[in-house]
Specification:
This protein is 38% helix and 19% strand. With 317 residues, it is an alpha/beta fold. It has one domain (44-311): Rossmann fold. β1 and β2 (20-25) form a beta hairpin.
Length: 317
C-alpha cells in the first residue's frame, strides 16, 4: 500500500543549489549542522556471500525491534544491496515468525527515478513487491514510497516527508553505496556536486545518463522482469527523488550493504576512497569533501554497520 496524502512537515523550506532543489530544516545553520558530527572510521565487515549479508541485515532489524517498544520506522534499500534481506523477509512473512515485527513496522523507501509510472518494472516499488511478497505487504503496518507519477514532484516529496516525520525518528536505515567518476560515490541518490547540505532532508535533483545506466544495469542483474517499454520510460526519467544528509544523519542506526561489485566494478575504487579519505576538521574543506563525494556522509554517523563482500576490496584494503 502506498500513501497518497501526508501533512506538511513542520519547518521545512525549499532551497536551490544550482539545478537541484533541496528541502531543508528552516533556520538551520549549515556550517553548524555539518561540524557537529564527528568523523568516524568505517569499520567494515567482510562476509562470504550475499545471503550472509542479508542474514546480517535481518539480525540488525530484529535487534532494533527487540530494543524498542511500539512502532519501528524502517527505511529500506533498493537494488542489489537490499535484495537478500527482502527475499528473507518475504520468506518469513509467509509464516508467523515475524508477524509482531511486521505489525509494528512503518516502512519507507529512500529514493526513486522520476517521472515514471509507479508500475514500471524499473521502479524500486515493483522490485520490493516482487521480493517481499503479498504476505509482507498484508502484514506490515504501513509502506510509504516516494511518488514518481505526480505532476508536481516537490509537493509529492513534501507529502512523503510529512509521513516520515509523523512516523518519528528513523530507527534503522539501510543504505548501499553507488559508484561515481573518479572513485567518488553516492548515498541514496545524493549526487556529487548536487550541493546537498547537512540540514537537507530530501531533494529533487536532475539525473545523469550514468545513473540511469547504473540503475538499468543493476535491475537487470538483480533479476527484475523488465520489458523494452519500461526500460525506455526509465531511460527518459529526468529527476531523482532522494532522502538527504539530514535524514541519514538523523537515523538511529545505519546498516550499509555493498554486494554488487561484480556488476558494478567501479565500486571497488569508490569503497577504497570512502574508507581512506581523511575528513577535514575545517568547515569549508569538509563541505567540499562531502559535496564531491557524498558517500562520505556515512562517515559522519556514529552508529554504522558496514557489510561487504570480498570483491569490493582493493588490493590495498
Amino acid at each position: 500500500m502506498t500513501s497518497t496524502f501526508a501533512p506538511r512537515p513542520a519547518e521545512i523550506e525549499r532551497r536551490l543549489a544550482g539545478g537541484n532543489v533541496w528541502l531543508h530544516h528552516a533556520g538551520a545553520d549549515e556550517q553548524t549542522e555539518l561540524m557537529k558530527h564527528s568523523p568516524q572510521l568505517l569499520n567494515y565487515e567482510v562476509l562470504e556471500s550475499e545471503a550472509a549479508v542479508g542474514r546480517a541485515m535481518f539480525a540488525e532489524l530484529v535487534s532494533v525491534a527487540d530494543g524498542k517498544e511500539g512502532d519501528l520506522t524502517v527505511v529500506i534499500l533498493g537494488g542489489r544491496g537490499g535484495q537478500a534481506l527482502h527475499r528473507l523477509l518475504g520468506e518469513k512473512a509467509k509464516t508467523e515468525e515475524i508477524d509482531d515485527l511486521l505489525a509494528r513496522s512503518k516502512v519507507f523507501t529512500q529514493d526513486a527515478l522520476a517521472r515514471m509510472r509507479m508500475d514500471n518494472a524499473f521502479s524500486f516499488v515493483r522490485d520490493f513487491e516482487r521480493l517481499l511478497g503479498e504476505s509482507f505487504f498484508r502484514k506490515v503496518k504501513s509502506f510509504t514510497s516516494m511518488r514518481t507519477d505526480t505532476a508536481d514532484l516537490e509537493t509529492g516529496l513534501m507529502n512523503y516527508l510529512g509521513e516520515l516525520e509523523a512516523a518519528g525518528p528513523i530507527d534503522i536505515l539501510f543504505l548501499g553505496l553507488g559508484p561515481e567518476a573518479g572513485g567518488a560515490s553516492h548515498l541514496a541518490y545524493i549526487k556529487p556536486g548536487s550541493g546537498a547540505g547537512a540540514a537537507d532532508v530530501a531533494g529533487v535533483i536532475p539525473i545523469s545518463k550514468e545513473i540511469l545506466e547504473h540503475h538499468v544495469r543493476k535491475f537487470k542483474a538483480g533479476g527484475a522482469a523488465t520489458n523494452d517499454a519500461d526500460e525506455a520510460e526509465c531511460r527518459n526519467a529526468s529527476h531523482i527523488l532522494t532522502l538527504g544528509p539530514a535524514a541519514i544523519l538523523g537515523a538511529r542506526k545505519i546498516v550499509q550493504s555493498i554486494v554488487d561489485a561484480d556488476t558494478a566494478p567501479a565500486k571497488v575504487a569508490s569503497f577504497d576512497r570512502l574508507v581512506k579519505t581523511v575528513i577535514s576538521d575545517e568547515p569549508q574543506a569538509r563541505a567540499q569533501q562531502v559535496d564531491e563525494n557524498p558517500g562520505l556522509w556515512i562517515r559522519l554517523h556514529p552508529n554504522v554497520r558496514s557489510l561487504v563482500l570480498p570483491n569490493v576490496l582493493s588490493a590495498s584494503n
